[in-house]
TrEMBL record, chain A:
It comes from freshwater metagenome. The keyword Cell membrane applies. This is Unannotated protein. InterPro entries: YidC/ALB3/OXA1/COX18, YidC/Oxa/ALB_C, YidC_ALB_C. Pfam families: 60KD_IMP.
Automatic annotation (TrEMBL), chain B:
It comes from freshwater metagenome. This is Unannotated protein. The lineage of its organism: unclassified sequences, metagenomes, ecological metagenomes. NCBIfam families: membrane protein insertion efficiency factor YidD (TIGR00278). InterPro entries: Membr_insert_effic_factor_YidD. Pfam families: YidD (PF01809).
Amino acid sequence: MNTILNPLYIAVSWVIVTIHDLLSPIFSANSGVSWSLSIMGLVILIRVLLIPLFVKQIKSQRALTALQPHMKEIQKKHKDDRQKQSEEMMKLYKEHKTNPLASCFPILAQAPIFFALFTVLNGIGKHPPVAHGVLTQHDVDSAAQATIFGAPISSTFLGTTNSTVKIVTIVLIAFMSLTTFTTQRQLMLKGMPKMDSSNNMMLQQQKIMLYAFPVIFAISGVNFPIGVLIYWSTTNLWTWGQQFYVIKRNPTPGSPAFLELQAKRARKAGTPDSESSEAGSTEPSSVEIKGQRSQPKKKKKK
Amino acid sequence: MKAIVVGLIKIYQQWISPMSAPKCKYYPSCSSYAVTAINTYGLKGLFMSVWRLMRCNPWSHGGVDYVPLNSTNTNEALSL
């Protein structure tokens, strides 16, 4: 197992150490700011690397607008057979070589990195600190004593009596819960195509998870070093921001956000509202721009 | 063993998967493919499921992809 994970430890620790070395002249080598920002930098790097995949997905979602008449036809034809409906839908995507679904890859790709980071940070939290990857003993000693808002980033809620650590952990857990909650809620309310009654059970489960998440975070969060919580919070914040951007600018066809955007575009283009409300399938680009007035040309006098 | 793996997948389907927007590129989804494959083929089914999960990536176009059936197992697989 270690032979598989060792390259990951090296990669993760190398990124952290490199960012840390870059930040040291600004925030000093032993400060919690340098170490915390290094962890956040790792998150940002991973998410930036995943952006091309994300853009690819958005592009295929856009291409979907063109397929909407076909999709509506399928929905109508197999109204009572959800299995047939999904089957036909997948066939349609494949035929047009555009699949709007993201696949599990973005999550699966991040999981080993999270695991490696967890091990590296957990090593820093040990007494005495254990070095993984390219971290030297000097590095881990420096990171172990580094504090953020007065709490050592290597400490855990359960492993200390220090009340500052407890408060910082609680704040971070609250932040993680809040970002996950908002991300989930936003997706449920605006990001997904409206569900019919046959999906009621799924909707119910989503609601339960929405409220179960803070509890899960609280239970697991008290066992994690503050550094891991920083990583987690940053990831959540990024996910929220990314989703916010997509829902506003490139919503999934058929979702409430999509209709909102179309209505907005239609209003901007000057078409009457009655038209935009019934047209879920109008191409925004095909809407004619009115109100453009050409300048009268000056006539030449004789 | 089989029951544990299938049980874990069912927990995923029931509780974890609904939290995000549908994202599988295939029909049936990778998780239900895995349930059918493991129930039908056992360990071989597990490898088939891993292979399916690997095929479901950003560069694939997805589509309809059922667990291949051999005649003796048809009934069990169809009941899912």
